[in-house]
Give the backbone structure.
Amino acid sequence: MRYLASLTCVLGLLGGCATVGPDDEGAADEQDVSTTYVNLMDFPKVDQGHWYDVIHALNAGFDQVCGDTFCEGDWSNITPLTFGCSVTSKLGNVKDCAWTFAASDVVVDPRTAAVLSNAPTFQCHITAKTTAVKLVAALSGSDPLHATLPGAPAATPTIYDQLGDCFEHPIGATPPVLATTGTASYVAGSDYYTTATGQAKWAAATAALKLGFDNVCGDTFCGSDFGDLQAMQLECAVTKSTGNVKGCAWVFAGSYDYVPAPGPLQVTSKSWTCPIAVSGTTLPKFLAALTATGTDDAIHRVVPGLATSFYDQIAGCVAR
């Protein structure tokens, strides 16, 4: 069979040809003007469910190492969003891969009680000169983040190696500008408590809100183009002397990609900072409302002092 393929190449030399074995899809280049590209998840020789499992393992691997590596820099909560690749439609040659991330840093202006966010995203392109089938196979082990990529540059053979420089180039970073006059009367809700017990209350309340968002996102906010929306960070401005909550902000981020005819992935990533109005309540009451026993998710709880829920307040903000 290989002899016949070689003979065919010789006879068709003027048209261009390459030998491709039955288990070597993508060894030939598809560079003619008729080449079209698809998302790797839509390539017929890749099981979509298995590909999702690979992405889930990549996300978990990143979360495991981030605290001691990438998250030790300017951003402590870098969060994976979307991983995707474009491949040629016939042979599955990998044209481009990209992994998007988000991060946030929310601060309270101690003089004005303004809740200010710096919430960039990152678009990290991954290089691997290989095929969809081989790429999925290489990433199917127990540690895909550190797996050697077929056809990757010698200096950066793994996805982990290729991520480092990406986080030096945030997209949409907006460092907050704090007031320089006035009395420093306010503090961030996350810093209001100085005891371990108090800090645990804050952590439990914000975790409950995030879980509530995750529970409803698939049927609501994640039904838009941004199917991978992540609840990033909630912060509140609190009067230091009384514990009154002046207002809060909740940051979200998401991304999506698509494959145009030329091949490279087109990636869109975005963050949203949604104001949460609060009226006439203290931080202890605010946190208690989120963690009180009940059958409804925290996101559907009424914001203390108002008649609207947290869900109501972000509905006109996220993924609009």
Q: What stands out?
A: The two ends are 56 Å apart (CA to CA). The mean pLDDT is 90.
